[in-house]
Amino acid sequence: MAANLHEFPDAATLAAALADEVAARLAAAIRERGSASIAVSGGSTPKRFFETLSTCDIDWGKVTVTLVDERFVPADNPRSNHLLVATHLLKDRAAAAKFIPLYYDCSSIYEAAVIATEKAAGIGKPFDVVILGMGTDGHTASFFPHGNNLGQALDLSGPRGVLTMEAEGAGEERLTFSFASLSDARFLALHIEGQGKKDVLDKAKAGSDETEMPIRAVLNRAQSPLEIYWAP
Ligand SMILES: O=C1O[C@H](COP(=O)(O)O)[C@@H](O)[C@H](O)[C@H]1O
Protein backbone atom coordinates (compact mmCIF):
# COMPACT_ATOMS: atom_id res chain seq x y z
CA MET A 1 0.00 0.00 0.00
CA ALA A 2 1.19 3.53 -0.73
CA ALA A 3 3.01 5.75 1.75
CA ASN A 4 2.59 9.52 1.48
CA LEU A 5 5.13 11.84 3.08
CA HIS A 6 3.85 15.10 4.61
CA GLU A 7 6.76 17.39 5.52
CA PHE A 8 6.44 20.41 7.83
CA PRO A 9 8.87 23.21 8.68
CA ASP A 10 8.71 22.56 12.43
CA ALA A 11 7.12 20.37 15.10
CA ALA A 12 4.44 22.92 16.06
CA THR A 13 3.18 23.22 12.48
CA LEU A 14 3.14 19.44 12.18
CA ALA A 15 1.21 19.06 15.45
CA ALA A 16 -1.42 21.56 14.31
CA ALA A 17 -1.85 19.91 10.89
CA LEU A 18 -2.01 16.38 12.31
CA ALA A 19 -4.46 17.43 15.04
CA ASP A 20 -6.70 19.12 12.43
CA GLU A 21 -6.67 16.01 10.24
CA VAL A 22 -7.33 13.64 13.14
CA ALA A 23 -10.12 15.83 14.54
CA ALA A 24 -11.76 15.91 11.09
CA ARG A 25 -11.51 12.11 10.82
CA LEU A 26 -13.01 11.60 14.29
CA ALA A 27 -15.81 14.07 13.59
CA ALA A 28 -16.59 12.31 10.29
CA ALA A 29 -16.70 8.93 12.05
CA ILE A 30 -19.14 10.32 14.63
CA ARG A 31 -21.33 11.75 11.84
CA GLU A 32 -21.27 8.51 9.85
CA ARG A 33 -21.32 5.83 12.57
CA GLY A 34 -22.23 7.63 15.80
CA SER A 35 -18.87 7.07 17.51
CA ALA A 36 -15.14 7.23 16.80
CA SER A 37 -11.98 5.40 17.87
CA ILE A 38 -8.31 6.35 17.98
CA ALA A 39 -5.23 4.38 19.04
CA VAL A 40 -2.17 6.48 19.81
CA SER A 41 1.50 5.87 20.52
CA GLY A 42 3.61 6.71 23.53
CA GLY A 43 7.15 8.02 23.61
CA SER A 44 8.35 11.60 23.56
CA THR A 45 7.21 12.61 20.05
CA PRO A 46 3.40 12.87 20.43
CA LYS A 47 3.17 15.28 23.40
CA ARG A 48 2.68 18.46 21.35
CA PHE A 49 0.23 16.73 19.01
CA PHE A 50 -1.74 15.46 22.05
CA GLU A 51 -1.87 18.94 23.58
CA THR A 52 -3.20 20.42 20.34
CA LEU A 53 -5.68 17.60 19.71
CA SER A 54 -7.09 17.92 23.26
CA THR A 55 -8.36 21.42 22.40
CA CYS A 56 -10.14 20.44 19.17
CA ASP A 57 -13.86 21.07 19.13
CA ILE A 58 -15.41 17.65 18.47
CA ASP A 59 -17.90 15.52 20.41
CA TRP A 60 -15.27 13.84 22.59
CA GLY A 61 -17.93 12.02 24.60
CA LYS A 62 -18.39 9.77 21.55
CA VAL A 63 -14.65 9.07 21.13
CA THR A 64 -12.80 6.02 22.49
CA VAL A 65 -9.06 6.48 22.96
CA THR A 66 -6.63 3.62 23.43
CA LEU A 67 -2.91 2.96 23.00
CA VAL A 68 -1.17 1.08 20.21
CA ASP A 69 1.22 -0.26 22.86
CA GLU A 70 2.08 -0.08 26.54
CA ARG A 71 4.74 -1.10 29.03
CA PHE A 72 3.67 -3.64 31.66
CA VAL A 73 3.70 -0.97 34.32
CA PRO A 74 0.85 0.72 36.24
CA ALA A 75 -0.47 4.11 35.20
CA ASP A 76 1.41 5.96 37.94
CA ASN A 77 4.77 4.79 36.57
CA PRO A 78 6.62 7.62 34.78
CA ARG A 79 7.25 5.27 31.83
CA SER A 80 3.55 4.45 31.38
CA ASN A 81 2.04 5.44 28.04
CA HIS A 82 -1.32 5.68 29.86
CA LEU A 83 0.18 8.38 32.09
CA LEU A 84 1.47 10.24 29.04
CA VAL A 85 -1.97 10.22 27.40
CA ALA A 86 -3.72 11.14 30.67
CA THR A 87 -1.38 14.09 31.13
CA HIS A 88 -1.29 15.46 27.60
CA LEU A 89 -4.41 14.28 25.74
CA LEU A 90 -7.28 13.36 28.08
CA LYS A 91 -7.83 16.92 29.28
CA ASP A 92 -9.46 20.15 28.09
CA ARG A 93 -12.22 19.21 25.61
CA ALA A 94 -10.81 15.67 25.25
CA ALA A 95 -11.39 15.00 28.97
CA ALA A 96 -14.83 13.71 27.92
CA ALA A 97 -13.34 10.85 25.87
CA LYS A 98 -13.48 7.24 27.04
CA PHE A 99 -10.04 5.70 27.59
CA ILE A 100 -9.36 1.96 27.33
CA PRO A 101 -5.97 1.01 28.80
CA LEU A 102 -3.81 -1.95 27.81
CA TYR A 103 -2.25 -2.45 31.26
CA TYR A 104 -4.22 -4.38 33.89
CA ASP A 105 -3.00 -5.25 37.37
CA CYS A 106 -2.57 -9.01 36.86
CA SER A 107 -0.03 -11.48 38.15
CA SER A 108 1.22 -12.06 34.61
CA ILE A 109 1.42 -9.99 31.47
CA TYR A 110 -0.33 -12.82 29.60
CA GLU A 111 -3.46 -12.35 31.71
CA ALA A 112 -3.28 -8.61 31.08
CA ALA A 113 -3.08 -9.23 27.31
CA VAL A 114 -6.21 -11.43 27.46
CA ILE A 115 -8.15 -8.76 29.38
CA ALA A 116 -6.91 -5.99 27.08
CA THR A 117 -8.00 -8.02 24.04
CA GLU A 118 -11.47 -8.54 25.57
CA LYS A 119 -11.85 -4.83 26.36
CA ALA A 120 -10.61 -3.82 22.90
CA ALA A 121 -13.15 -6.09 21.22
CA GLY A 122 -15.78 -3.54 22.21
CA ILE A 123 -14.12 -0.84 20.10
CA GLY A 124 -15.42 -0.61 16.53
CA LYS A 125 -13.33 -2.33 13.86
CA PRO A 126 -11.30 -1.06 12.14
CA PHE A 127 -9.94 1.83 14.22
CA ASP A 128 -10.93 5.17 12.73
CA VAL A 129 -7.48 6.59 13.47
CA VAL A 130 -4.14 4.96 14.35
CA ILE A 131 -1.10 7.13 15.03
CA LEU A 132 2.16 5.19 15.06
CA GLY A 133 5.55 6.37 16.22
CA MET A 134 8.95 4.91 15.45
CA GLY A 135 12.06 4.37 17.55
CA THR A 136 15.57 4.89 16.21
CA ASP A 137 15.93 1.09 16.17
CA GLY A 138 13.08 0.82 13.64
CA HIS A 139 10.44 -0.39 16.11
CA THR A 140 6.88 0.80 15.93
CA ALA A 141 4.10 0.06 18.44
CA SER A 142 5.94 -2.66 20.45
CA PHE A 143 7.09 -4.47 17.32
CA PHE A 144 10.73 -4.52 18.41
CA PRO A 145 13.66 -5.85 16.40
CA HIS A 146 14.11 -9.54 17.26
CA GLY A 147 11.16 -9.39 19.71
CA ASN A 148 10.17 -12.78 21.14
CA ASN A 149 6.67 -12.56 19.67
CA LEU A 150 7.43 -10.54 16.54
CA GLY A 151 6.35 -13.18 14.01
CA GLN A 152 2.91 -13.49 15.57
CA ALA A 153 2.56 -9.73 16.08
CA LEU A 154 3.29 -8.97 12.42
CA ASP A 155 1.15 -11.78 10.99
CA LEU A 156 -1.64 -10.03 9.09
CA SER A 157 -3.66 -13.23 9.02
CA GLY A 158 -3.51 -13.43 12.83
CA PRO A 159 -6.26 -12.28 15.18
CA ARG A 160 -7.02 -8.74 16.22
CA GLY A 161 -6.11 -8.00 19.81
CA VAL A 162 -3.27 -7.40 22.23
CA LEU A 163 -0.09 -9.47 22.41
CA THR A 164 2.89 -9.55 24.73
CA MET A 165 6.39 -8.64 23.60
CA GLU A 166 9.84 -8.93 25.10
CA ALA A 167 12.96 -7.62 23.39
CA GLU A 168 16.42 -6.51 24.35
CA GLY A 169 15.75 -2.91 23.30
CA ALA A 170 12.30 -2.69 24.89
CA GLY A 171 13.15 -2.30 28.57
CA GLU A 172 10.03 -3.53 30.33
CA GLU A 173 7.79 -6.31 29.04
CA ARG A 174 5.32 -4.81 26.57
CA LEU A 175 1.70 -5.09 25.51
CA THR A 176 0.95 -4.27 21.89
CA PHE A 177 -1.93 -4.39 19.48
CA SER A 178 -1.17 -6.83 16.66
CA PHE A 179 -0.38 -5.48 13.21
CA ALA A 180 -3.67 -7.03 12.04
CA SER A 181 -5.48 -4.72 14.50
CA LEU A 182 -3.72 -1.55 13.35
CA SER A 183 -2.93 -1.88 9.66
CA ASP A 184 -6.45 -1.39 8.30
CA ALA A 185 -7.20 1.82 10.22
CA ARG A 186 -9.34 4.25 8.24
CA PHE A 187 -6.57 6.80 8.82
CA LEU A 188 -3.13 5.28 9.44
CA ALA A 189 -0.35 7.75 10.25
CA LEU A 190 3.30 7.55 11.24
CA HIS A 191 4.42 10.59 13.25
CA ILE A 192 8.20 11.11 13.37
CA GLU A 193 10.42 14.10 14.01
CA GLY A 194 14.09 14.93 13.50
CA GLN A 195 16.67 14.16 10.82
CA GLY A 196 17.74 11.04 12.76
CA LYS A 197 14.29 9.47 12.41
CA LYS A 198 14.16 10.45 8.72
CA ASP A 199 17.47 8.63 8.22
CA VAL A 200 16.06 5.58 10.04
CA LEU A 201 13.00 5.70 7.79
CA ASP A 202 15.20 5.91 4.67
CA LYS A 203 17.22 2.94 5.91
CA ALA A 204 14.00 1.00 6.47
CA LYS A 205 12.80 1.83 2.96
CA ALA A 206 16.07 0.55 1.51
CA GLY A 207 15.76 -2.97 2.95
CA SER A 208 13.23 -5.72 3.57
CA ASP A 209 14.18 -7.62 6.76
CA GLU A 210 11.28 -6.96 9.17
CA THR A 211 13.03 -8.75 12.03
CA GLU A 212 15.80 -6.15 11.87
CA MET A 213 13.45 -3.16 11.37
CA PRO A 214 9.78 -3.98 12.08
CA ILE A 215 8.63 -0.59 10.72
CA ARG A 216 9.18 -2.22 7.30
CA ALA A 217 5.99 -4.23 7.84
CA VAL A 218 4.05 -0.96 8.06
CA LEU A 219 5.84 0.57 5.08
CA ASN A 220 5.39 -2.49 2.87
CA ARG A 221 2.33 -4.41 4.00
CA ALA A 222 -0.14 -2.10 5.75
CA GLN A 223 -3.64 -2.56 4.38
CA SER A 224 -4.36 1.19 4.49
CA PRO A 225 -2.27 3.95 2.90
CA LEU A 226 0.37 5.18 5.35
CA GLU A 227 0.43 8.94 5.92
CA ILE A 228 3.90 9.89 7.18
CA TYR A 229 4.05 13.17 9.14
CA TRP A 230 7.59 14.47 9.54
CA ALA A 231 9.25 17.70 10.73
CA PRO A 232 12.95 18.36 11.33
O1 LIG B 1 8.69 2.73 23.11
C1 LIG B 1 8.04 3.49 22.46
O2 LIG B 1 8.70 4.34 21.61
C2 LIG B 1 8.13 4.66 20.35
C3 LIG B 1 8.86 5.91 19.85
O3 LIG B 1 9.07 6.81 20.93
P1 LIG B 1 9.82 8.22 20.77
O4 LIG B 1 10.15 8.61 22.18
O5 LIG B 1 11.03 8.00 19.93
O6 LIG B 1 8.84 9.15 20.14
C4 LIG B 1 6.63 4.83 20.44
O7 LIG B 1 6.10 4.93 19.16
C5 LIG B 1 5.99 3.66 21.20
O8 LIG B 1 4.59 3.82 21.30
C6 LIG B 1 6.57 3.61 22.57
O9 LIG B 1 6.00 2.58 23.35
UniProtKB/TrEMBL annotation:
Pfam family, one: Glucosamine_iso
Domain of life where this protein originates: Bacteria
Reaction catalyzed: 6-phospho-D-glucono-1,5-lactone + H2O = 6-phospho-D-gluconate + H(+)
Enzyme superclass (EC): hydrolase
Record pathway: Carbohydrate degradation; pentose phosphate pathway; D-ribulose 5-phosphate from D-glucose 6-phosphate (oxidative stage): step 2/3
GO function term, MF aspect, one: 6-phosphogluconolactonase activity
PANTHER family assigned: 6-PHOSPHOGLUCONOLACTONASE (PTHR11054)
Name of the featured protein: 6-phosphogluconolactonase
Species of origin: Neorhizobium phenanthreniclasticum
Gene: pgl
